[in-house]
Amino acid sequence: MGGKYSSLDPKEIEVPKLHAMLERDGYLKPYETEYRRRYACFLDYVDKISEGEGGLENFTQGYKWFGIHINADNSITCREWAPGATELFLFGDFNQWNKFSHPYKKLDYGKWELHISPNEDGSCVMKHLSEVKLVIRTKSGDLVERLSPWATYVVQPPREEGFVYKQRIYHPPPTQKYIFKHPKPKKPESLRIYECHVDTQTFW
After folding, report:
1. 190 falls within a domain
2. Where is the Glycoside hydrolase family 13 N-terminal domain (predicted)?
3. Range of the domain at 41
């Protein structure tokens, strides 16, 4: 990578509890240099995230920034991460399925942003359970339709419409919003990881 840490000799990289792991399983000893090299690459990425995203905690809360968010004034802010896209559009029943009337603006680092004003009467353009999709123009010029990876509510389509889930805007009126009946569970002292998928996400 050529970063601050990955440009160093792997022998200079301190990996937490590496020696304990190698003592526990001697078959891993031949790969010690590779463990150190990979940890150096990891440290470089942590630095990049800290510099560009304000730290790991902010980075893990990307759902608060990305996706489709209806603001207090009923305007809508939409953001996506699509570094492989040359153009990005939002369409749905809110704009009569016009694929190109609502283009995103390209930002730095593969980010895209779109702001939609409220209706003249101050109401939100998107109603509760409105259906939306993204249109992405790839580097090869192809147009592909996708759901946002930041979608907060998707539904299974009727069988006759195929198998692709539909993204819907979940924005019920106050009288229909769910009210929690029980207190929020306490935060556990240690991390609980149920499942982890590495390298299963592609970019557009």
Report:
1. no
2. 66-151
3. 10-60
Exposure letters 34-73 (e unless 16+ CB within 10 A, then b): ebbbebbeebbeeeeeeeebeeeeeeeeeeebbbbbbeee
Residue 56 lies in a domain: yes
Q: Please check whether residues 26 and 80 belong to one and the same domain.
A: no
Domain shared by 87 and 160, yes or no:
yes
pLDDT tens string, the chain, 204 residues long: the values are 567 888 888 889 999 999 999 999 999 999 999 999 999 999 999 998 998 888 999 989 999 999 999 999 999 999 999 999 999 999 999 999 999 999 999 999 899 999 999 999 999 999 999 999 999 999 999 999 999 999 999 999 999 999 999 999 999 998 999 999 999 999 889 988 888 877 655 554
